[in-house]
Amino acid sequence: MKSCAIVILNYNGEEMLRQFLPSVLEYSQSDIWVIDNASTDQSIEVLKKDFPSIQLITLQENFGFAGGYNHGLEFLKNQYKYYILLNSDVGVTLDWDLNLVSHASENPGYAAFQPKIISFQNPDQFDYAGAGGGFIDSLGYPYCRGRIWEHVEKDSGQYDDNTDIDWATGACCIIKSELYHKFKGFDSHFFAHMEEIDLCWRMRNEGWKIGYLGSVKVYHVGGATLSRTSPKKLFLNIRNSLSMIYKNESHFAFLLKFISKFCLEMMAAASFVMRGDSQNAKAVFKGYREFLFSKSYSEDQISKLGRKHTSYTKGPVSFLIYHTGILRKKYFSEL
């Protein structure tokens, strides 16, 4: 079995491939694979012509981020000890993969690690996705060291440490391949968004740790597939967050969180309506409707893992909305 495969999921990302694959090839020592999610642009031609050394897995339809990785990684099962999942819009640095693999090997109790994620457009700032390590508040809202809601911190070395976190970003993380397949990977019902948080939560429920390695740094464009202000992204986040909490908490804990989130998010929907933003208001309602009336979660994963209370890494922060909306705190250090 080989040590590690860098696996990039691509969908109509020919420009991202042209821009970022050269740095991945130059600075990496691991095998590089691209899973193509049935792209309709010139991605396949670009890969075959300009990057012939990169190994390619082609899927017959777009399964989304979650399903795309699940289907693609089945082809690599039992071939590698680790997978590094890497977005196509990430620039890497010298020996980044070797350092992640070395650290993961030295810490066998950890299922996954993420590096420090810096904004490609603003290299003095953290990136939105993952930043200095991901956490979850007591209502299941995710946040990061270096990024809370839309407020992003400048990187001044404050998160150059190694620490335990609640979740590792799918933009760039290393994960034990055996565990990825044991836990049946990402929940394909999610399609995109929250799937890495859910997977990390499920692994932590079984006693595995998730870690952050601040000495490794990568640069992420972010929003290349779906804008952060997109109603579709809001819909996916609402639906998938409810599914994630339902799967990972006890029935009673889920009910309390559901009631609290419903009140808060209906207030948000009303605010969208008052601002004339009907699309985002509809996205909130659609998220609840699809969670309640469609199969947007995996019963198989629920029955296998059972209902367990989560032990949060940092406390947890009781209500992120209260800390940020009422107390006006913007930095992780203030929480």
Describe what you observe in this structure.
This protein is α/β, with parallel strands linked by helices and 335 residues long. The protein folds into 2 domains: 2-220, Spore Coat Polysaccharide Biosynthesis Protein SpsA, Chain A (Alpha-Beta Complex), CATH 3.90.550.10; 231-334, no CATH class. Helix content is 40%, strand content 21%. It has helices spanning 14-27, 43-50, 64-74, 96-106, 177-182, 195-205, 231-248, 251-274, 278-293, 299-305, 320-326, and strands at 2-10, 31-36, 55-58, 80-87, 90-91, 110-119, 134-136, 142-144, 147-148, 151-152, 162-165, 172-176, 209-220. The strands form 3 sheets. Strands 1, 2, 3, 4, 5, 6, 11, 12 and 13 form a 9-stranded mixed β-sheet that branches. A hairpin with a 5-residue loop joins strand 7 (134-136) and strand 8 (142-144). The chain is globular, with a radius of gyration of 19 Å. Mean pLDDT is 91; it is low at 303-307. Keywords: Glycosyltransferase, Transferase. It comes from Algoriphagus machipongonensis. Belongs to the glycosyltransferase 2 family. Residues 6-178 form the Glycosyltransferase 2-like domain. This is Glycosyl transferase, group 2 family.
The CATH level-2 architecture of the largest domain is identified as Alpha-Beta Complex
Q: Tell me, briefly, the overall form.
A: globular
Order of helices and strands: EHEHEHEEHEEEEEEEHHEHHHHH
* Share of residues in strands: 15-25%
Q: End-to-end span in angstroms?
A: 43 Å
Average pLDDT value?
91
Query: Ranges with pLDDT <50 over ≥5 residues?
Result: 303-307
CATH superfamily label of the largest domain: Spore Coat Polysaccharide Biosynthesis Protein SpsA, Chain A
Could you please say which CATH topology of the largest domain applies here?
Answer: Spore Coat Polysaccharide Biosynthesis Protein SpsA, Chain A
Please identify the top-level CATH class of the largest domain. Alpha Beta
Q: How many helical elements?
A: 11
- Mind telling me the C-alpha Rg? 19 Å
Structural class: alpha/beta
Largest sheet: 9 strands, mixed
The count of strands amounts to 13
Number of domains: 2
Helix content: 25-40%
